[in-house]
Protein backbone atom coordinates (compact mmCIF):
# COMPACT_ATOMS: atom_id res chain seq x y z
CA UNK A 1 0.00 0.00 0.00
CA UNK A 2 1.06 3.52 -0.75
CA UNK A 3 -0.09 6.25 1.59
CA UNK A 4 -0.58 9.67 0.08
CA UNK A 5 -0.05 12.65 2.34
CA UNK A 6 -1.48 15.80 0.81
CA UNK A 7 -0.88 18.62 3.28
CA UNK A 8 -2.88 21.74 2.57
CA UNK A 9 -0.63 24.20 0.80
CA UNK A 10 2.17 21.63 0.42
CA UNK A 11 3.35 19.04 -2.05
CA UNK A 12 1.90 15.53 -2.11
CA UNK A 13 4.17 12.95 -0.52
CA UNK A 14 4.03 9.18 -1.00
CA UNK A 15 4.92 6.63 1.66
CA UNK A 16 5.31 2.92 0.87
CA UNK A 17 3.99 0.86 3.75
CA UNK A 18 6.21 -2.08 2.75
CA UNK A 19 9.25 0.01 3.70
CA UNK A 20 8.38 0.04 7.42
CA UNK A 21 11.03 -1.84 9.38
CA UNK A 22 10.04 -4.21 12.18
CA UNK A 23 11.48 -1.86 14.80
CA UNK A 24 9.42 0.96 13.32
CA UNK A 25 6.29 -1.20 13.28
CA UNK A 26 6.77 -1.76 17.01
CA UNK A 27 7.00 1.99 17.54
CA UNK A 28 3.79 2.58 15.58
CA UNK A 29 2.00 -0.15 17.53
CA UNK A 30 2.91 1.50 20.81
CA UNK A 31 2.04 5.03 19.68
CA UNK A 32 -1.26 4.02 18.08
CA UNK A 33 -2.12 1.40 20.72
CA UNK A 34 -2.90 -1.08 17.94
CA UNK A 35 -1.45 -4.39 16.74
CA UNK A 36 0.43 -4.32 13.42
CA UNK A 37 -2.24 -6.47 11.77
CA UNK A 38 -4.85 -3.93 12.79
CA UNK A 39 -2.69 -1.14 11.41
CA UNK A 40 -2.22 -2.93 8.06
CA UNK A 41 -5.97 -3.55 7.79
CA UNK A 42 -6.62 0.02 8.87
CA UNK A 43 -4.41 1.42 6.11
CA UNK A 44 -6.46 -0.53 3.55
CA UNK A 45 -9.63 0.95 5.03
CA UNK A 46 -8.21 4.50 5.27
CA UNK A 47 -8.34 4.43 9.08
CA UNK A 48 -6.89 7.80 10.15
CA UNK A 49 -4.86 6.45 13.07
CA UNK A 50 -3.30 3.70 10.95
CA UNK A 51 -2.43 6.09 8.12
CA UNK A 52 -1.04 8.64 10.55
CA UNK A 53 1.10 6.04 12.31
CA UNK A 54 2.76 4.71 9.19
CA UNK A 55 3.46 8.16 7.74
CA UNK A 56 4.68 9.44 11.11
CA UNK A 57 7.20 6.63 11.60
CA UNK A 58 8.50 6.95 8.03
CA UNK A 59 8.84 10.73 8.41
CA UNK A 60 10.84 10.13 11.61
CA UNK A 61 13.68 8.77 9.47
CA UNK A 62 14.40 12.31 8.27
CA UNK A 63 13.04 14.05 11.36
CA UNK A 64 14.14 11.83 14.29
CA UNK A 65 12.70 14.21 16.88
CA UNK A 66 9.22 14.20 15.32
CA UNK A 67 6.82 13.31 18.10
CA UNK A 68 3.47 11.56 17.68
CA UNK A 69 1.58 14.61 18.96
CA UNK A 70 3.49 16.88 16.59
CA UNK A 71 2.25 15.01 13.51
CA UNK A 72 -1.51 15.38 13.43
CA UNK A 73 -2.66 15.91 9.83
CA UNK A 74 -6.25 16.61 8.91
CA UNK A 75 -8.29 13.51 8.03
CA UNK A 76 -8.60 14.37 4.35
CA UNK A 77 -4.83 14.87 3.98
CA UNK A 78 -4.12 11.10 4.20
CA UNK A 79 -5.38 8.29 2.00
CA UNK A 80 -4.13 4.95 0.75
CA UNK A 81 -3.71 3.55 -2.76
CA UNK A 82 -2.73 0.17 -4.21
CA UNK A 83 0.77 -0.19 -5.61
CA UNK A 84 1.57 -2.06 -8.84
CA UNK A 85 2.05 -5.39 -7.08
CA UNK A 86 -1.33 -5.15 -5.37
CA UNK A 87 -2.97 -4.08 -8.63
CA UNK A 88 -1.63 -7.21 -10.35
CA UNK A 89 -2.95 -9.41 -7.53
CA UNK A 90 -6.42 -7.87 -7.71
CA UNK A 91 -6.51 -8.05 -11.51
CA UNK A 92 -5.82 -11.78 -11.30
CA UNK A 93 -8.82 -12.11 -8.98
CA UNK A 94 -10.98 -9.92 -11.21
CA UNK A 95 -10.20 -12.06 -14.24
CA UNK A 96 -11.69 -15.05 -12.42
CA UNK A 97 -15.02 -13.21 -12.02
CA UNK A 98 -17.88 -13.69 -14.48
CA UNK A 99 -17.33 -11.36 -17.42
CA UNK A 100 -20.46 -9.37 -16.54
CA UNK A 101 -18.85 -8.26 -13.24
CA UNK A 102 -15.37 -7.46 -14.48
CA UNK A 103 -15.95 -3.93 -15.79
CA UNK A 104 -17.32 -2.73 -12.47
CA UNK A 105 -14.52 -4.37 -10.52
CA UNK A 106 -11.91 -2.88 -12.85
CA UNK A 107 -13.42 0.59 -12.47
CA UNK A 108 -13.36 0.27 -8.69
CA UNK A 109 -9.76 -0.93 -8.75
CA UNK A 110 -8.77 2.07 -10.88
CA UNK A 111 -10.28 4.36 -8.24
CA UNK A 112 -8.03 2.82 -5.58
CA UNK A 113 -4.87 2.33 -7.65
CA UNK A 114 -1.97 4.73 -7.29
CA UNK A 115 -1.67 4.68 -11.08
CA UNK A 116 -4.90 3.73 -12.92
CA UNK A 117 -2.85 3.02 -16.06
CA UNK A 118 -1.28 0.08 -14.21
CA UNK A 119 -4.75 -1.47 -13.98
CA UNK A 120 -5.19 -1.26 -17.76
CA UNK A 121 -1.74 -2.75 -18.32
CA UNK A 122 -2.36 -5.60 -15.87
CA UNK A 123 -5.76 -6.36 -17.44
CA UNK A 124 -4.22 -6.39 -20.93
CA UNK A 125 -1.47 -8.72 -19.76
CA UNK A 126 -3.91 -11.04 -18.00
CA UNK A 127 -6.20 -11.16 -21.05
CA UNK A 128 -3.39 -11.81 -23.54
CA UNK A 129 -2.89 -15.34 -24.77
CA UNK A 130 -0.01 -17.14 -23.07
CA UNK A 131 3.34 -16.59 -24.70
CA UNK A 132 4.92 -19.61 -26.30
CA UNK A 133 8.39 -20.47 -25.21
CA UNK A 134 10.79 -21.15 -28.06
CA UNK A 135 11.56 -24.81 -28.58
CA UNK A 136 15.08 -25.86 -27.75
CA UNK A 137 17.23 -26.37 -30.80
CA UNK A 138 18.51 -29.89 -31.11
CA UNK A 139 21.83 -30.69 -32.60
CA UNK A 140 23.08 -33.94 -33.98
CA UNK A 141 26.49 -34.97 -32.89
CA UNK A 142 28.91 -35.99 -35.57
CA UNK A 143 27.49 -33.72 -38.30
Helix and strand arrangement:
Layout: E1 2-5, E2 13-16, H1 22-32, H2 36-44, H3 48-59, E3 78-81, H4 84-95, H5 99-112, H6 116-127
Structural class: mainly alpha
By DSSP, the count of extended strands is 3
Quaternary: single chain
The biggest beta sheet is recorded as: 3 strands, antiparallel
Helix content: 40-55%
Could you characterize the architecture of this molecule?
It is a single chain. This protein has 143 residues and is mainly α. Helices cover 49% and strands 8% of the residues. It has helices spanning 22-32, 36-44, 48-59, 84-95, 99-112, 116-127, and strands spanning 2-5, 13-16, 78-81. The protein has a three-stranded antiparallel beta sheet with strand order 2-1-3, covered by helices on one side. Strand 1 (2-5) and strand 2 form a beta hairpin. Helix 1 packs across helix 3 (48-59), helix 4 packs across helix 6 (116-127) and helix 5 (99-112) runs antiparallel to helix 6 (116-127). The termini are far apart.
Brief synopsis:
It contains six helices and three strands; from the N terminus they run ββαααβααα.
Which tags fit this structure?
mainly alpha; 143 residues; 3-stranded antiparallel sheet
Amino acid sequence: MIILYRPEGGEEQQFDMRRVRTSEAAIVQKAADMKWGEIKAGVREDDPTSLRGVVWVLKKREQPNLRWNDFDPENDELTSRFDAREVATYVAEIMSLPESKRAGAIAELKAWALDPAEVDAAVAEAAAPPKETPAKATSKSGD
